[in-house]
Design goal:
It holds the Pfam family TPR_19. Helix content is about 80%, strand content about 0%. With about 140 residues, the protein is mainly α. It has one domain: Tetratricopeptide repeat domain (Serine Threonine Protein Phosphatase 5, Tetratricopeptide repeat, Alpha Horseshoe), CATH 1.25.40. Helix 4 packs antiparallel against helix 5, helix 5 runs antiparallel to helix 6 and helix 6 runs antiparallel to helix 7.
């Protein structure tokens, strides 16, 4: 019901009420926590979304959607290293999600996109110099 309100009806306010009602009865429901994160993301409220996606992962460390949402927030905030690390963590710890069967491939794509940004923005002369300094 909440997803229909959020995605089809574009009614974020009522969707949030629905997800919060679920949390009243099941405060560690990873799906409801992640769905609140999705609603926050749709409002570009990434800081609050990060909190809910992190809670979702804490509630269920195998829930792929939590990892995807958290990594996507960091990607949108242009913290590509965190986005990469979280998407990799999600790929290793999560299982294929029956709620969203495409989430695993989305995690792969997000990991690749983040890595491309990291490579593009890395100053390899600094990396070389730090290696030389360590030697």
């Amino acid at each position: 019901m909440g997803n229909m309100l959020l995605n089809e009806k574009k009614n974020t306010e009522d969707a949030l009420k629905y997800f919060n009602k679920v949390l009243e009865y099941h405060p560690d429901n990873a799906v409801a926590l992640a769905n609140i994160g999705v609603a926050m993301t749709k409002q570009s409220n990434y800081d609050d979304a990060i909190i809910f996606f992190a809670k979702s992962i804490k509630a269920d460390s195998k829930y792929a959607n939590g990892y995807h949402g958290l990594a996507l927030c960091y990607y949108n905030l242009q913290d590509y290293q965190k986005a990469f690390d979280i998407s990799q963590d999600g790929l290793h710890k999560s299982v294929m999600s029956p709620e969203n069967p495409n989430v695993y491939s989305q995690l792969c794509q997000l990991s690749i996109n983040s890595a491309q940004h990291i490579v593009k923005n890395t100053d390899y002369s600094e990396v070389r110099n730090s290696i030389i300094d360590e030697l």
